[in-house]
Amino acid sequence: xxxxxxxxxxxxxxxxxxxxxxxxxxxxxxxxxxxxxxxxxxxxxxxxxxxxxxxxxxxxxxxxxxxxxxxxxxxxxxxxxxxxxxxxxxxxxxxxxxxxxxxxxxxxxxxxxxxxxxxxxxxxxxxxxxxxxxxxxxxxxxxxxxxxxxxxxxxxxxxxxxxxxxxxxxxxxxxxxxxxxxxxxxxxxxxxxxxxxxxxxxxxxxxxxxxxxxxxxxxxxxxxxxxxxxxxxxxxxxxxxxxxxxxxxxxxxxxxxxxxxxxxxxxxxxxxxxxxxxxxxxxxxxxxxxxxxxxxxxxxxxxxxxxxxxxx
Amino acid sequence: xxxxxxxxxxxxxxxxxxxxxxxxxxxxxxxxxxxxxxxxxxxxxxxxxxxxxxxxxxxxxxxxxxxxxxxxxxxxxxxxxxxxxxxxxxxxxxxxxxxxxxxxxxxxxxxxxxxxxxxxxxxxxxxxxxxxxxxxxxxxxxxxxxxxxxxxxxxxxxxxxxxxxxxxxxxxxxxxxxxxxxxxxxxxxxxxxxxxxxxxxxxxxxxxxxxxxxxxxxxxxxxxxxxxxxxxxxxxxxxxxxxxxxxxxxxxxxxxxxxxxxxxxxxxxxxxxxxxxxxxxxxxxxxxxxxxxxxxxxxxxxxxxxxxxxxxxxxxxxxxxxxxxxxxxxxxxxxxxxx
Lengths: 312, 339
Known about the structure:
The structure holds two protein chains of two kinds. Helices cover 77% and strands 0% of the residues of chain A. Chain A has helices at 2-6, 8-27, 33-58, 66-83, 86-111, 115-133, 143-148, 160-177, 180-190, 192-197, 202-228, 238-248, 261-279, 284-311. Chain B contains twelve helices and twelve strands. Chain B has a six-stranded parallel sheet with strand order 2-1-3-4-5-11, with helices on both faces. In chain B, strands 7-6-8-9-10-12 form a six-stranded mixed sheet, sandwiched between helices. In chain B, strand 3 (83-86), helix 4 (95-103) and strand 4 (107-111) form a beta-alpha-beta unit. The longest helix of chain B has 16 residues, at 35-50.
């Protein structure tokens, strides 16, 4: 029972996703494995941006520069893969991503300027860096990178893109969560002073959390490059989408509570809603309104249910 | 597979008689809130409305990147559309979805810009002809000799390169014409206006101005510096066309660069679905020139103006020979079944 109660939000989200998939199938009976596969591919960059954002929100911060860091990583990947072997290029991109995140975190810790201000400034800095690397869309990606996210793995219903999201997120987050560092991230997020008095190195924890966010953004940028086959220097709409999915996924803005599974499921919910609206041929100017209303509605309902549960 | 089946079924029915078909057309665009693009979307809806064979249009229209356009294209494929008409965000980035669509028998038409996917049709305004037409009018207006100012767009952008080729072609045909000043406006109103102020201040005499669409502010620059007006060539932007009929002593011409090329894209997609594919995969729409120095030209300009028209839209709302809707229908901006 406690397992269900502790994960009530994530379970509800999974149920909501199942309902939405059923609705999609009802509207378009032809929706099947290929539809799921393109949904998983579309979710790739959003899922990684959201996972990164979730970690910095849990540590009590926010990173407004995620979309710009993804753009830097995408153009870096496209420029490098045109000139050198794919695997070393991929590793360089991951290092670049983590380094950008660490710079964000270090600036916040050293200057003591609020996270939102520092990362807002860095949004413009990383955007400029992306344009310096590649002033117009271009470059090329390795063929295997494009193939890696397309199609199915082993089973005809398991999209490779979904598997990649699961593996990357699990490899980075699962081993960390139970360790001292993982606990420190939650401790700093829920009460920085208490964490400090318990002997947690607050600054170091925050820098590492931001570096992890940068690492996820590197995966996000690689997904963009893999999807399009090129690098685009202008950041896409990933910042607000990531914040939305983090909130919908049950991570408390302010820190200390939540995980990565909820936000990643939330990403799929937001993507499938767009698919449903497209299938229903809803006026595109109304689409964004509907997306926003559904999001606020779900979060409000969730908060109401949680408060009711707490009173009992 | 379903789409392939319905397309095959549709072709069979079509061969057997003159039934109206039942096409659903998907539209994908990634710039929202820009006058030219909004006109393009409305032209697509209006043309879908008047095509008897089109029963539904699904419009995916938002501000996004290439990955977002890929998502929209895949959603349109899932929706089972018969044709996709898109304004591509990038020529190379969308091939995975476009190739997937064509493999399922979906007709792909790119409007305004090209895509590199094999088998896709491309329909766009002929930018070289755009520049040639305006430049030729200007040079003839000057009697074949004189000094002109050449105000271009953005260096390296394909539309600017194409227009430069057209301008150079007209220049080669008129050896008496001399370019005294060449400048890139960046297609920015304020920048173009300042550049004209600066050049007027130098006092270097000139006889005419060719602009790449930054036009009404150039007329403003003349009137605000009380300089005598010279012939000016611009695009069919509402502000400039209005000046052509209202500013005293102003001689000029507007060359059309219609956003309604989107409507032409829908018409082309329906033609291809009905088995009337054009010979070439690239179709260019030739512009027309509206000048205010003849009665005939003034009448054309007067006809094109409509107070209900959005001031941000190009004034040419239709393309003769391609689109079939009325001005009321494009202003209403409604497709079949409200799409």
